[in-house]
Write a structure and sequence with these properties.
Helix content: 25-40%
Largest sheet: 5 strands, antiparallel
Distance between the termini: 29 Å
Structural class: alpha+beta
């Protein structure tokens, strides 16, 4: 996904985000609200390798990275490899999400789980994986 917010001098605003997401804005807001309720405060940060992303952290631990695309957002959580098998059979996760976890190739001792969010169902998958991240040590 090419970053649409890639100018380091222009931090994304609610208006810019709404314009970029269109109908996917509601699921985006659901995810942000859930992160705040969980105490994982979202904060915009600029990354040279991917533009503006939200880092949601709780007690110094990164819970998720969120990025806005045209008509969708992307939520990524990183997990220790030791959790891959447990996540792949977690009945709380959708079948599609469990399949993507099984296919994921680790990078060293961690592996990413990424959900593209366009709909409320996608937001539900993203929230499920965020809850797993909050639960696992």
């Amino acid at each position: 996904m090419a970053a649409i917010f890639n100018d380091p001098a222009v931090e994304p605003t609610n208006t810019l985000i709404a314009h970029a997401l269109g109908p996917a804005r509601q699921p985006w807001e659901e995810i942000l609200d859930a992160l705040r309720v969980a105490g994982a405060m979202p904060e915009w940060r600029y990354h040279r390798d991917g533009g503006w992303k939200i880092k949601a952290a709780k007690n110094g631990k990164t819970i998720a990275l969120l990025q806005v695309g045209r008509g969708f957002s992307r939520v990524t959580c990183w997990f220790a490899v030791r959790h891959q098998r447990a996540l792949a059979i977690d009945p709380e996760l959708s079948h599609e999400l469990r399949d993507s976890i099984i296919r994921q190739t680790p990078t060293g001792e961690v592996f990413p789980v990424t959900v593209q969010v366009r709909t409320h169902r996608d937001a539900s998958d993203a929230l499920s994986i965020i809850l797993c991240k909050l639960r696992l040590k």
